[in-house]
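Can you give me the bound-state structure? Components:
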Amino acid sequence: MFGSSGLLLVVLGLLIIKNAISIVGKANVVEFLWAFYNGYLSRDKEWIKLKNLKIDKIEIIKEKNSISPQDQYAKWTKLNRNLDKLSKEIELLESNLILKRSIFKNYISYFITAIIEIPLLFIRIFKRNQPMFYLPNGIFPKYVLWILKFPNANYNSVSLNVWIFFINTFINNLLGLIKYIFEQNHTNTEKEEQIESIVQS
Amino acid sequence: MSELSEAEKRKILRERRAAKLAKGGGTDRLNKITGINGPAFSNKTTSFEENENQRVEEIDSKDDNQNKDKVAEINTGSVVGNVGKDANYLENEDDPENSDITELGMGAGLHQQQQQQQQQQQLDIDKLLQEMFMNSSAANHQHHHQDNDGDPLLNDPLFSKFLSTLKGDENEQQQQQQEQLSAEEIKKRQALQQKLLLNFKKFKYRFLIVRFLIIVSLLFYSFFNENLYESSLIFNYSNQKSNFYIYFLTLELGFAIFYMIFIDNNEKNNIDSIIVKTLNLIGGFIPQKYKKLLLLLAKYQEMINFFLNDLSIVILFFGISSVLI
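Here's the bound-state model for the whole set.
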């Protein structure tokens, strides 16, 4: 099905996606997809109604905060009553949508497993003896070549398992570095200042 | 004989009871235990007294109102008569000469001997404790100079620890005081630990970037200058040799030495390793000897990680180049 080059790139791509999801968090990915689906793809009436109700609720809250309850008591109570009514409707709609949301989340997690884990499993089982690529001659000594072809690949080649191992190692390091740089820029500076002040006190 | 009033009857009974207790209703028992019938104690128990004792016990166990008839019987009975006969029975019985019962069963000489022995033992114990404390303080002072000429018992760590707990060793007291840290000091320590961890992370990732750049430079150098054949999807039958691996290993050795120097200079650095984390969790169950070994393994684990990380860059480079080139 796959030539060596295709297999190599497919495995590389799958592992990049898998590691990215693990760094970001599967729950966050599912939440994002749920919001995307509801925002742009969904034509569910209940969802549209819920969105409109929430917009109305925000407007009512703004209007209610802008008037004084002592001066315009009647209007304020009317707005309050509408707000309570809207809140109840929103609550009801949300409870109806919870079931749909959990079903959607289950489908998404199955989808992620199907596109990443299952292909990797198949590849590991059915292509375990296929070499990924051959190294230039004389670059590594024999004992290193033996490890690189582990368990059953050809001499002077890199086996699938070794290739997967090294890709995972590299991607973990790279993502860890990116995460550290991101944290350093946004949050760690304040934390470091706090720690420094405590230590020097 | 005129009848006595109830109050008088009770008074008489009370007096008899008190006399009996003072004399010791257990004189016979005591004599049996000690086996000596001294002159201070009387073995005489008249039948009158025995009857008396029985009746007193009966009266004591019941209410006064209920026992009025019995009292009346007693009064009309032999008690009244016998009271008249033995009116001075209380005066006839003298108090024992010596009320100290510890001398019972012993002669005076024996008792004195025992007292002397006890005093001697106490003196010996005091002397022994003094010697021990003196020696323990001396042992503590000599501890830093590793003077092992003292008592082998004192050099035993368990025994010295026992002594120090008995004495309330000053060093241990100081340690206890130090251990009673305030909340601020604990916070400071935690902040210091976090700082060390952050510093270590910073060093780790900067080191990673430096290594990455050096290895990629080496790869490009070998690729272009040494006529290194590219990796391919088919087996290479050429016999060319390359010094790439020698350069690679040399660089790895340099990185390892640099890392070890850094770690040794900053001993308080918390190495972010699974082994160290495990040690922190179950450190109490592992003996000190193995802890050091495990910490050494943690250091070497980091170096092995560096080697694998760098090798992964090389393998990835060759893998992608086999497809693209």
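A couple of observations. Residues 183-324 of chain B form one domain. Chain B has three domains: 6-105, 109-179, 183-324.
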